[in-house]
Amino acid sequence: MKRDDPGLHAIPLLDTEDGPVADVAASPSTAPGWWRLLKEDVACVLTRDPAARNLFEVWTIYPGVQAVALYRLAHALWRRGARYGARLLSFIARWLTNVDIHPGARIGRRFFIDHGACVVIGETAEIGDDVTLYHGVTLGGTTWQPGKRHPTLGHGVVVGAGAKILGPITVGHGARVAANSVVIDNVPDAATVVGIPGRIVIRREPRQASDRIDLQHHLIPDPVGKAIGCLLDRIAELESEVKLLKGQAAPTHTGDDACHSCEVDGHPCAQPTFASRSGVSS
Hints:
The chain is of the alpha/beta class. Helices cover about 25% and strands about 15% of the residues.
């Protein structure tokens, strides 16, 4: 199968960005078999990586695909109680691919790790369907206590290179995490997160409706730059007022660069915290 094969269009993806979605982690009774999962993992690479030319190339030289294939075997052993064998297989997979996926993690269908280097996924992490991770991503824990301590990623999530998502938090369906961001709190559905610590940013232009996953996680606003721009505008306004009070002529401003330009539909372009959590489960 090559990139232009019609069969690729039959690969099921998310219905719509706001459409109905299933549970993040399917129950063992409804989960498909290893071979079917692996074929979907391989086929989805051709829809998300322009460098992939055919399935033979993906099968043989894509470490992210090989890591996921070995993880699914290790996860099957883990569920059957063969804990040491599962951990040993994960150790071998890490040595071969430089991807560390704990066999206890729960990962959905059509999962793709692009470039497959230095990715770490913890034991209690849960990942939905149609998720894409880039190199250097960590889904890590923040506590020594047993139990749920790693993130849950919804369906259709895209996590940029070097991003760290830490703790038992939830990243909503269709969310995007920008490269090198550090996310330590819940993220709503379809949100874009950027920065350290991660901040939700509001897009000036809505995403285009499509039946494909939006991989353009680099097209994000710059909340820090916007904040600095607002401060500079405010300083200029204050300097003008001081000159007027001193009886000096103040420079004229067109008003195009006023601080209100940092707002979108009456809302600030960046939220300093994750205070707004409506519809986000903990």
